[in-house]
Write a structure and sequence with these properties.
With about 200 residues, this protein is α+β, with helices and mostly antiparallel strands. It is about 20% helix and about 25% strand. The radius of gyration is 17 Å and the shape is globular.
Length: about 200
């Protein structure tokens, strides 16, 4: 039986060390301020919401003929403390061409997190790190225990709003020129309710 790769005997990892280590280590990980953090498997509801959103976003991008794509759980590097962080949103959209060599998404235009009670603090830390990435225009945080989402959109001057509210109706995502009824994200969950025409 092969032993699991050991963590480096250093207090903190760099992104380069983390990428090498995580490639040989089972499971999903992200690097938070130099420390590898394991990511638990998604719950049934979380995974169902994620799958619905992938389908909705992909179909929208194809229908519009946009040169963008949805990626599940990509690694992204925030601009703040960039040498010590690789964060992993549940979904992200990029308009950058795909590459066999690239292991990290360099230019996300939108990041999506599905908020679970067990990871709420880490999720919000990730949200603030995504805001430091210049290409990100929208950050969408979707609830998993109730129908609701927060959309945080970059203003025209490049700043971010100081506050935002939870919505259960329609959300506008400028980064992909789309509008969705939040209930659509929950279509295959126990929270499903009819979507208004």
């Amino acid at each position: 039986m092969n032993a699991l790769p050991k963590m480096p005997l250093v207090a903190r990892m760099t992104v380069a060390e983390f990428m090498e280590w995580s490639a040989a280590t089972p499971g999903r990980w992200q690097l938070m301020d130099g420390e590898p953090v394991a990511m638990a498997p998604a719950s049934d509801t979380h995974g169902s919401i994620q799958a619905e959103m992938v389908a909705l976003f992909r179909n929208h991008l194809r229908a519009r003929g946009l040169p963008c794509r949805v990626v599940v759980a990509p690694g992204v590097v925030p601009r703040l403390r960039a040498s010590k962080n690789v964060r992993v949103p549940d979904l992200a959209v990029t308009c950058q061409a795909p590459s066999l060599q690239r292991r990290l998404m360099e230019q996300p235009v939108m990041a999506v997190e599905i908020l679970s009670p067990s990871n709420e603090d880490d999720t919000w830390r990730n949200v603030w790190s995504y805001a430091s990435i210049p290409s990100v225009r929208d950050i969408l945080v979707v609830r998993s225990l109730e129908i609701g989402a927060e959309v945080i959109s970059r203003r025209e001057d490049g700043s971010w709003p100081e506050d935002f509210t939870t919505v259960s109706g329609r959300v506008r995502l400028a980064s992909i020129d789309a509008e969705f009824d939040v209930a659509e994200f929950y279509a295959t969950t126990e929270l499903a309710r009819p979507v208004a025409p």
